[in-house]
Design a protein that fits this description.
Number of strands: 16
Structural class: alpha+beta
Number of helices: 8
Oligomer: single chain
Order of helices and strands: HEEHEHHEEEHHHHEEEEEEEEEE
Distance between the termini: 36 Å
Length: 436
């Protein structure tokens, strides 16, 4: 092949292809698939294409969601060597064609811009069935090839001194040669390997485009709500006989009861393979803490009492969660997963304010441990930033009610309106940052 001719063609035919824009959240997978197929169709026309990943690195503010950003064409077409910009938005919905058959229909809006003129050259607004998508994308790639030839040529720079070099065709430059094998891809399911073999991206570029998480280190920030045994309550009573220096009974009750609160925290993890993530999450919960105190004084046939009702205050406790996530899909923007692990809760105790002649007992803090399970969804964008939503459920193994009555039975004890369940349910949403 003639080396100089190849170089001039690559420089002259730069096609800018930003990411296809999904109209709704449900269209992410469709947009990602059509974008990848159109990239292959363009390269099959021997066109040099600046891929969506490359544009996101160079223009992160506009290359994502270009179809919804009015200034995107003007900014991208300032790139050196560019000639044509293709901007597309995609949506899809299911159509029932017969009583037993459901087909997929796509609404594709594809806009074409030329260098030096960011106004529209052409627009294709079509609604097509899934079976017609491949032929449509091939036709659009052919239109781009024709459009390149019709556009006016830019003024050529001063002609350099050229040394011609004839080289033999390299097997990896052959357009019909499948992409090379890669151990990271060979460990994926057969369906993902077949998807990789059917296109012409290199291993690293395909792993990024397919959102494969193998070998990634992940950082998370999250917030949410917690429901279950999170309200910490402590009741303490003292009984006196004739005088307050003669204690005849002491009662204590310490328990976590049903309630709700807010949670926040972060996590760090590692994915040795596409289906397994090993991580540790830590955070805090803002919940309600209650205290009730009182005393009773027995004299002859009368009993004098003094009680202070529950005094709820906002408090917190810390959590640590070693956990495993098991993913069911290796590629794509949406990845469901199953969650397993354990939860450790660290809580403080009570330092009860005494009265002038009444010395109440304090309670120490402690730690509860439990088993945790649940599930969630990870949403991976084409950039390293993603989001997730999950619902973990925890059963505390060593959470017990502390109830103590020393000496004689007191006459007046606090009423309890709830009993512990030893369970907690959380709803967490957050942001994920992936490093390869």
């Amino acid at each position: 092949m003639h080396y100089l001719l190849w170089l001039q063609t690559a420089l002259a035919n730069d096609i800018l292809l930003p990411s296809f824009t999904p109209v709704t959240l449900d269209d992410f997978a469709v947009a990602e698939r059509l974008e990848r197929d159109f990239l292959v169709a363009l390269r099959n026309q021997n066109l040099s294409v600046v891929s969506p990943l490359a544009l996101m690195d160079e223009y992160p503010d506009v290359a994502i969601g270009c179809a919804e950003t009015p200034e995107c064409p003007q900014i991208l077409l300032q790139r050196d060597g560019s000639k044509v910009l293709v901007v597309a938005s995609v949506s899809g919905n299911s159509l029932t064609t017969t009583e037993s058959t459901v087909s997929q229909e796509y609404h594709i809006v594809m806009k074409f811009f030329g260098t030096g003129n960011p106004s529209l050259i052409d627009v294709k607004d079509v609604r097509i069935a899934d079976s017609e998508v491949d032929s449509f994308l091939i036709a659009m790639a052919q239109d781009v090839s024709v459009l390149l030839q019709l556009l006016p040529q830019q003024e050529a720079p001063p002609e350099p001194i050229i040394i011609e070099k004839i080289v033999e065709p390299d097997s990896q430059e052959d357009l019909n040669t499948p992409p090379p094998d890669d151990p990271r891809i060979m460990r994926l399911p057969m369906s993902a390997q077949a998807e990789y073999k059917s296109q012409r991206l290199g291993p690293d570029e395909w792993l990024e485009a397919a959102r494969v998480r193998s070998g990634n280190i992940t950082l998370e920030l999250f917030s949410g709500a917690v429901f279950g045994d999170v309200t910490h309550r402590y009741d303490t009573r003292i009984g006196f006989d004739n005088a307050k220096d003669n204690v005849f009974g002491i009662y204590e009750y310490d328990a976590f009861l049903p309630g709700y609160g807010a949670i926040f925290g972060g996590a760090i993890g590692f994915m040795p393979t596409w289906w397994l993530e090993i991580s540790v999450a830590g955070g805090a919960a803002l919940v309600q803490k209650e205290l009730s105190t009182g005393w009773e004084l027995h004299r002859a046939d009368e009993v004098g009492i003094s009680t202070y009702p529950y005094d709820p205050v906002m408090a917190g406790y810390g959590e640590l969660e070693p956990r495993l996530r098991f993913y069911v899909m290796p590629t794509g923007p949406v990845k469901p997963y199953v969650l397993l692990g354990s939860t450790m809760r660290f809580y403080d105790g009570y330092v009860v304010q005494d009265e002038a002649d009444v010395d109440y007992r304090n309670r120490p803090g402690g730690m509860h441990a439990g088993i945790m399970s649940g599930g969630g969804f990870a949403f991976d964008s084409a950039s390293p930033i993603g989001v997730f939503a999950e619902i973990p459920w925890t059963y505390m193994l060593n959470q017990t009610v502390y109830e103590s009555a020393e000496g004689e039975q007191l006459t007046y004890l606090p009423e309890r309106s709830a009993e512990p369940t030893n369970m907690m349910t959380k709803v967490r949403v957050g942001m994920t940052l992936r490093f390869r």
